[in-house]
Amino acid sequence: MSASFGMLKAFLKSRVGIVLDADKHYLAQARLAPLTRRFGERTVEGLLQRLGEGADPALAQAVIEAMTTNETYFFRDRRPFDLFGETILPQLMHSRAPTRLIRVWCAGCATGQEPYSLAMMLDELAKQLAGWRVEILATDISAAALDTARGASYNQFEAQRGLPVNMLLRYFNREDDRWRLAEHLRARVEFRELNLMSDFDGLGPFDVIFCRNVLIYFDVETKKNVLERLARVCRPDGYLMLGAAESVLDLGEAWRAHPQNPGLNIRRPAAAVKRLQLISSH
Ligand SMILES: C[S@@+](CC[C@H](N)C(=O)[O-])C[C@H]1O[C@@H](n2cnc3c(N)ncnc32)[C@H](O)[C@@H]1O
Predict the structure, then answer these.
(1) Does residue 207 share a domain with residue 165?
(2) Which of 30, 117, 179, 196 fits a 20 to 30 Å CA distance from 1?
(3) Residue 277: per-residue pLDDT
């Protein structure tokens, strides 16, 4: 299916930013095969030919859903959440004292475990945060992942993955063989469908952006472009948290890596240097 695979590659690159390597034929075949029946096609080739004709938005969305990877879990890699609680939040509570408002964006939130981990942390800090408003916006391109996120109902494996047992028991209710996050925590997160390839200037400004394990699927130019636009919606003294295997190195001027904390990045302006020293002496 090499002609249609080329078309699929071009489609994903332009619509989602995702780069499909030449050795991903098999992956594409396996992920798209279940769609053939639903769209009345006999083969993946036929499905992709129809995708190429560009006249079926439902098919385009289904292909995007099938080809994105929604892997996530609660408190993934742990360290970013420790940094959020121990370093970022105290700094922001100092600098945002006049407004008592902190805005967090989880860009590429998949099925919700990342923003809900933050919501649970904030709940634990409720006393310190009395009188503060901390908003969490969580976005993803996948409508199916967002449906799961909004429902906040997880099976035993998902619920236990990364989540300390005491938090599971405190914040989740058992519903048959699943675990559902308590209503007051679900209400803390606003979920919205958003493609990072589209214009998101209107969403900002944010104090903290989590964009973890999303850029890894993009090529260098797309990474640079998204990082540049993320900087535009982040406050000058704001933070960007990337995934454990990601960095801003050689990806433009908008961000600099925190020397002691890989994955944590701050905006370039001179004020940031001062803040770096503050964090270092923390
Ligand atoms: C591997 S998950 C990461 C989830 C979470 N941030 C974490 O680290 O656990 C990557 C998510 O990015 C989303 N994604 C990929 N391309 C995107 C795009 N162009 N715009 C918005 N979301 C995208 C996928 O749908 C998927 O849910």
Answers:
(1) yes
(2) 196
(3) 44
Question: Which residues in the chain land under pLDDT 70?
Answer: 1, 262, 269-282
Ligand 1 — pocket residues by CB below 6 A? 16-18, 68-72, 76, 108-110, 114, 140-142, 145, 195-197, 212-214, 217, 243
Q: What is the pLDDT of residue 221?
A: 95
**Structural domains of the chain, count:** 2
41 inside domain:
yes
CA of 172: how far to CAs of 85, 124, 166, 168, in Å? 21, 14, 10, 5
| Residues 154 and 27 grouped into a single domain | no
Indicate which atom in ligand 1 lies nearest the CA of residue 210.
Answer: 6
> Is 97 found in the same domain as 43?
no
Residues 52 and 163 grouped into a single domain: no
Name the helix (H) or strand (E) containing 156.
Answer: helix 156-160
Return the CATH number at 243: 3.40.50.150
Q: What's the confidence (pLDDT) of residue 280? A: 44
Ligand 1 pocket test, pick from 68, 146, 158 with the greatest ligand atom count within 8 Å of Cβ, gives: 68
In this structure, what is the dihedral angle of CA atoms 238, 145, 76, 278, given to the nearest 10 degrees? 0
Cβ neighbours around 29 below 10 Å, total: 14
Same domain, 94 and 52: no
Q: Which residues pair with 106 in a beta bridge?
A: 138, 210
0.90 exceeded by the pTM? yes
Query: Which residues are catalytically annotated?
Result: 31, 140
